[in-house]
């Protein structure tokens, strides 16, 4: 990485502002249902506490539309954070994220304690990337650490603006995300295989294009497969398809061929009379999807084919489910691939909300090398794009 890392800066007894992505999910009773984004920032927080810094944390939560709204307060996150830090540090919840009151709290807090600022998105200036707002945030600290990987694709004030006022560097989480990505896509141990699923080719076109040039094999499942099959003149019944993408897909197949990347498509499907968990289903080979039926999952022959394709892989990247996995009747293909990937000895990197969820639901999150904490940011990297939240950090001096 050509950006400064937290260890490259002097943070000892400094006021350090850490941008995290604590945009965590809640249930109807305001309980946090998944705190992996909080836990993922502990290495950075612990490092700063060891350095006796004043740890000031900033994050967004939900979409409060630029107005203070208690529903989107970060207070439950402060409670969870205190639970993880126990007696090691006191976690103080600030009433705001900028202003004289916050400055006073920072002056008064002890070195080795944590202050969690209130939701940045209570100010519309955050999402508008207002430089004045970034300057206000920068005035709270001596050093800025970026650890909000999940938000790094957004040009918001706290993501790209603070770096111009104070020295800035990547935190442990951000570095880990980038390092794994480098190992998976830009400098992988080969053979390297990408497993791609999900609903829309149009959402993932740039990813497939980028990976078709870099991978040894690309395995396509999910509804995306039907646009590829239709482009080859194969009947797909009532399955999801993007007719406007047929030529684009033909071009993608050409790119793969020219680059010697093997493209795999499903060879059988679970089809249903209607998109419903209780609908009648049957298994059919790919050329025999009945005209009035919808294909909603990959079948066992495809699972075997994909398993064989992955067998010799040294690196695997996975984004997107293999079928409509939210419905039990169409989830088998995705979970079979979870089993396949977790039993492989390859370096395995998983990213994207749905794929992440499949691993959480199957209780196998610890059996892959790395699950990215960023949906959109991970996809942007897979496209070969640059993340503004990383680009704006201070460069390493060579
Ligand atoms: P994406 O956001 O593009 O990764 O798409 C994820 C969505 O794709 C999930 O909600 C799945 O239910 C859906 N999906 C995957 N395969 C199919 C399929 N064969 N038919 C309909 N939806 C599908």
Write structural notes for this entry.
With 398 residues, the chain is α/β, with parallel strands linked by helices. The chain folds into two domains: 6-177, Phosphoglycerate kinase, N-terminal domain (Rossmann fold, 3-Layer(aba) Sandwich), CATH 3.40.50.1260; 188-382, Rossmann fold, CATH 3.40.50.1260. Helices cover 36% and strands 15% of the residues. The chain has 16 helices and 15 strands. The chain has helices spanning 36-39, 42-50, 75-85, 100-108, 124-127, 131-138, 157-160, 172-186, 201-214, 224-231, 246-259, 300-311, 332-342, 353-361, 375-382, 388-391; strands spanning 15-19, 54-58, 91-93, 114-116, 143-146, 168-170, 192-196, 217-220, 262-264, 268-272, 281-285, 294-298, 315-319, 347-350, 370-371. The strands form three sheets. It has a six-stranded parallel beta sheet with strand order 3-4-2-1-5-6. Helix 13 links the parallel strand 13 (315-319) and strand 14. Helix 10 crosses helix 11 (246-259). The longest helix has 15 residues, at 172-186. It is elongated, with a radius of gyration of 23 Å. The termini are close together. Residues 197-200, 203, 222-223, 240, 295-296, 320-321, 323-326, 352, 354 line the site of adenosine monophosphate (AMP).
Topology, element by element:
Layout: E1 15-19, H1 36-39, H2 42-50, E2 54-58, H3 75-85, E3 91-93, H4 100-108, E4 114-116, H5 124-127, H6 131-138, E5 143-146, H7 157-160, E6 168-170, H8 172-186, E7 192-196, H9 201-214, E8 217-220, H10 224-231, H11 246-259, E9 262-264, E10 268-272, E11 281-285, E12 294-298, H12 300-311, E13 315-319, H13 332-342, E14 347-350, H14 353-361, E15 370-371, H15 375-382, H16 388-391
Parallel strand pairs: 1-2, 1-5, 2-4, 3-4, 5-6, 7-8, 7-13, 8-9, 13-14, 14-15
Antiparallel strand pairs: 10-11, 10-12
Helix pairs in contact: 9-11, 10-11, 12-13
The structure holds adenosine monophosphate (AMP).
Adenosine monophosphate binds at residues 197-200, 203, 222-223, 240, 295-296, 320-321, 323-326, 352, 354.
